[in-house]
């Protein structure tokens, strides 16, 4: 990930490394700021009520659903969307893995799936337990298909590409978690 996540000024949000003014209207969701104002259409609006995960982005490396948050909450923070993942060297390795494993069909859920998986991998690395974690005392979080399925359960795919999605995530992050 190349987006500069160092803090933006209090009056702006650093989005994919570029400082953007905080909206003057405090009612604007982060999702609408991204899509309607900045025309970053990679982040998708599905349910607009926190149920589908299509709008997932990373804030200072942590995954959030952007439809349920107000843009003003992120003044001074760094947001990374799907547009911020590839760099001069090419696609993020998880993006490539999605292609290699047919982890999408229509692609509508894909940006949210990828951002969510990146956040999830960081959570695993930090040792945060999930609902299916067996050994809560362990400092080393086991990487398993059950863990990935549980942790990615907030991201829905109406095309039913979940098997490819899990395979892509597993190929990308299983080794790093060992
Ligand atoms: S659009 Fe945000 S969770 Fe569905
Ligand atoms: S690829 Fe179509 S909704 Fe997931």
UniProtKB/TrEMBL annotation:
Residues 11-85 form the 2Fe-2S ferredoxin-type domain. The keyword Cytoplasm does not apply. GO terms for molecular function: 2 iron, 2 sulfur cluster binding; metal ion binding; oxidoreductase activity, acting on the aldehyde or oxo group of donors. Coiled coil: none annotated. Pfam families: Fer2 (PF00111), Fer2_2 (PF01799). It comes from Rhodopseudomonas palustris (strain HaA2). InterPro entries: 2Fe-2S-bd (IPR002888), 2Fe-2S-bd_dom_sf (IPR036884), 2Fe-2S_ferredoxin-like_sf (IPR036010), 2Fe-2S_ferredoxin-type (IPR001041), 2Fe2S_fd_BS (IPR006058), Aldehyde_Oxdr_Iron-Sulfur (IPR052914), Beta-grasp_dom_sf (IPR012675). PANTHER family: OXIDOREDUCTASE WITH IRON-SULFUR SUBUNIT (PTHR45331:SF2), OXIDOREDUCTASE, IRON-SULPHUR BINDING SUBUNIT-RELATED-RELATED (PTHR45331). This is (2Fe-2S)-binding protein.
């Amino acid at each position: 990930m190349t987006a500069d996540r160092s803090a933006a000024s209090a009056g702006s949000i650093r989005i994919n490394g570029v400082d953007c003014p905080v909206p003057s209207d405090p009612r604007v969701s982060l999702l609408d700021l991204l899509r309607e104002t900045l025309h970053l259409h990679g982040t998708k609006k599905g349910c607009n009520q926190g149920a589908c995960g299509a709008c997932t982005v990373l804030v200072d490396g942590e995954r959030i659903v952007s439809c349920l948050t107000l843009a003003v909450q992120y003044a001074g923070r760094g947001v990374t969307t799907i547009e911020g993942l590839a760099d001069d060297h090419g696609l993020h390795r998880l993006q490539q893995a999605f292609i290699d494993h047919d982890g999408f069909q229509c692609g509508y859920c894909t940006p949210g799936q990828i951002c969510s998986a990146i956040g999830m991998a960081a959570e695993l690395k930090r040792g945060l337990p999930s609902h299916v974690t067996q050994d809560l005392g362990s400092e080393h979080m086991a990487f398993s298909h059950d863990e990935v399925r549980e942790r990615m359960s907030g991201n829905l795919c109406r095309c039913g590409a979940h098997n490819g999605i899990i395979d892509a995530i597993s190929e990308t992050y299983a080794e790093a978690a060992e």
